[in-house]
Amino acid sequence: MRDPGRAGNSAPLLWLGRETGRATFFCGLSDLYRNVAATKPRYGRTGALEVDEIRLDYVVAPPGVADFVTLFYHFRAEVPVFEDTERAGLAQLRFRLSPGGATYRFADGSVQEASDVHVIGPTSGAFQVRASGPIVHVFGAGITPAGWAAMIGIDASAMLNRIIDAADLFGERIYATANALHATEHTPAMVRIGEALVQDLVRQQCGQTVDFMRSVDDWLADSPSPDIDDLVRATGLSRRQVERRCNALYGAPPKLLARKYRALKAAVALVSEGARVDDLIGRGFYDQSHLIREIKQFTGLTPGQMQAEPNLLARITIGGRHALCGQVNPLISGT
Fold first, then answer.
1. Is residue 313's pLDDT more than 90?
2. What SS3 class is residue 105?
3. Average pLDDT over residues 143-161
4. Residue 60: is its pLDDT beyond 90?
5. For residue 253, what is the enclosing H or E element?
6. d(CA 81, CA 92)
7. Strand 54-60's sheet: what is its strand order?
8. How crowded is the C-beta side of 182, counted as CA atoms within 13 Å?
9. CA nearest 173: which of 198, 206, 150, 154?
10. Count of CB atoms situated within 10 Å of the CB of 37
């Protein structure tokens, strides 16, 4: 089976294996992040060589919160400064568990400082993150569109490419969760804490919202260039209602969602499946120039960069999510 963290002739991530509902990666930063000097090599309990260790755990959301959370994740890096590009995606709730804060630069050109506990709204393009070390330790959760409606309730399009202090949204209870996360280093315990928070924050029954989200997700997953008329038929809503609800829940209209997920799926195919650019043009792109522009817009990298030397976050997020194929929504594992 193809190593899920390997791409082209780049240095591989060290794939530690997959448990049910969990994917874990180590990587040596000296191989992947050239702006930071390597420290003295050391060996961890797994026997893995660690050099300026970076570790990422993805955990499938437990059934009780699966409609509201895509994945939980636990990230730790021992670096003076961590700086990289993240792909466009859904909203995120993040807890910085080490001092230092974070700065984000979004596709619209805005630069925003983040508090230790913050929400990133849906993003329209790739964005840069910078966090000071010597340790960057983060626990987070991807927020589904139904989770956004149930926990936050603001029109998501108003929060596109925006950082929000989580205390402004959720009040003092968020600090109790942060304290509980600080008290443990174990990912399963953190997931239980995150699950309890999500259950506490869900403000309303949202069966119709979940149904709409599933219709949109299926529409996005079924075709590289989905037709909005198919979504209108699947939901039984008017075209205007569909566009309004997509803006409110996903932060973008259906056309932009289709572009984003087409590009993200193509990027995964490049990195995890070894697909060729010529093969991908037939997946909804007009020509090679169109393919390059779209992948660059939503991942921050050209197809050539994706294959030859993808950045750190691209490799560990694609590898980790792809490793959960069959355990999560295909729109999660496939993008």
1. no
2. strand
3. 97
4. yes
5. none
6. 21
7. 14-19, 22-27, 54-60, 69-78, 135-143, 91-96, 117-120, 163-165
8. 12
9. 198
10. 9
Could you tell me where the DSSP H helices lie in 9-68?
Answer: 29-32
pLDDT of res. 6: 34
User: What is the rounded distance in angstroms from the CA atom of residue 293 to the CA atom of residue 304?
Assistant: 12
Q: pLDDT per residue over 85-111, tens digit each?
A: 999 999 999 999 999 889 999 999 999
pLDDT band at 203 (very low <50, low <70, confident <90, very high): confident
Q: What is the mean pLDDT of the chain?
A: 85
Q: Can you name the residues that pair with 26 across neighbouring β-strands?
A: 14, 55
Q: How confident is the model at residue 335 (pLDDT cuts 50, 70, 90)?
A: confident
Q: Rg (Cα) of the chain, in Å, rounded?
A: 19
Tokens of 258: 């289709």
Between CA 74 and CA 67 the distance in angstroms is: 20
Q: Is there a contact between 258 and 220 (Cβ–Cβ < 8 Å)?
A: yes
Helix, strand or coil, per DSSP, at residue 234: helix
- Strand-pairing partners, residue 127, are 86
CB contact at 8 A, 53 and 16: no
Helices (H), the chain: 29-32, 145-147, 166-170, 173-182, 187-201, 207-222, 228-235, 239-250, 254-272, 277-281, 288-299, 303-308, 312-322, 330-333
Can you give 290-322 as a three-state secondary structure string? HHHHHHHHHHCCCHHHHHHCCCHHHHHHHHHHH
How far apart are alpha carbons 297 and 270 in whole angstroms?
16
Spatial distance between the Cα atoms of 211 and 214, rounded to a whole number of angstroms: 5
∠314-318-323 over CA atoms, to 5°? 155
| DSSP-derived 3-state class of residue 24 | strand
